[in-house]
């Protein structure tokens, strides 16, 4: 989108420094086009993108000796072979990761030389 077309979509009172709701929505629509495709190979790997492949939703915590009533699917066969006694893997449930955003709204950050 060129500068003239962009200016036509923004309110006449826009100074290019502070943004109103219409400007924020316009910029949101532009950034959506920059996102990677939903079926990218990168979405299947660990990293910033959420994978479409569902796992157990559990993080490994520790190994402890097997106790009656433990799920036999969680037996750690390598530790069992090494020690000669059955051991079970323990997991902790994954929780949502907290997100913290720090935004500097001080007057020093309110600058701009042109509209995007």
Automatic annotation (TrEMBL):
InterPro entries: DUF58 (IPR002881). Residues 62-114 form the DUF58 domain. This is DUF58 domain-containing protein. It comes from Photobacterium damselae subsp. damselae (Listonella damsela).
